[in-house]
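Dear support,

I submitted the protein below through the web form. The confirmation email said the job was done, but the results page showed an empty box. After a refresh the structure appeared. I'm attaching both so you can tell me whether what I see now is the final result or a partial one.
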Amino acid sequence: MPYKLGDIAEHLNAELRGDPECLISELSTLAEATPSCLSFLSNRRYIKQLESTQAAAVILDNKNANKCPAHALVVDNPYLGYALAAQLLYPLTDIKPGIHSTSSIAETARIDANSQINAHAVVQEGAVIGTGVFIASGCVIGSNVVIGDNTRLLENTVVCHHVVIGKNVLIHPGVVIGADGFGLAEQNDGSWIKIPQIGSVIVEDDVEIGANTTIDRGALGDTYIGRGVKIDNQVQIGHNVTIGEFTAIAGCTGIAGSSRLGKRCRIGGGCGISGHLEITDDVILTGMSAVNNSIIQSGIYSSPLSATDNKTWRKNVARFHRLDESFKKIRDEISEIKNG
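What the results page shows now:
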């Protein structure tokens, strides 16, 4: 539904420079906006688009407000302002309490009457589902799972037995929480023996988990996802991993078992974190970083090599393999010079 610009300004705690009665019906980019749209400027690369935008209003900072040809909502952090405006204009779908006739609900499951369970969902024995929970079609909730109030599980999510999920959690399609961790013991003949994974997964409040992400259950203790953690699509979190509150993890990252990430970390896409490591609070890993040692000091860390043409890469690899030999030769030559 349309909102008055004055109401949006109040929601954003923004300074309004323009008509508070102007009606806004949707959000759009600066380049594609129409006269009913609200847009935003948070990256100076798009200042030229600001000059020609057809948006009715723009969220931006004070530095760029005088360049705005439309009504302006002036805030310190335009990207945050955009996020708040998006929540206002595009609220989550309201819960429609009830259980679809095609779902399968165990007699011992406890489901609050104000929750919604859609078609072909399965809720197994002893599961407890709080109030305002939304469970989409095709979800499977294992035995003795606990799901907190106002949590939303989208299509084909699987939550395995004894997992605990907090309040206000958003889980996107295809997520699997609580599958067995990769626990194996090698025998003398090289074959493998499976180690039963008897821990669980605890997901605290206000977490978001992206599509097709997998979070393994603990081998003995629990895998733990702290409050406010945000996880992108196709992330693999191994058994007994701990992730501190408000950490954000971008897509295709893999975290091996028993590693512990601190609070407020930022993990770029495609990172690989080895097992049994400690990463302290407020660490930023840039995309494709490989972490093989613990990080005990906050800061920004990077490790990947940039891509280059194959011919140069092959030469560099060959030289890398001769690096130890070259170092020893140089060391011996320096030693001979010093000894005269």
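Response: this is the final, complete result; the empty box was a page-load delay. The longest strand covers residues 37-40.
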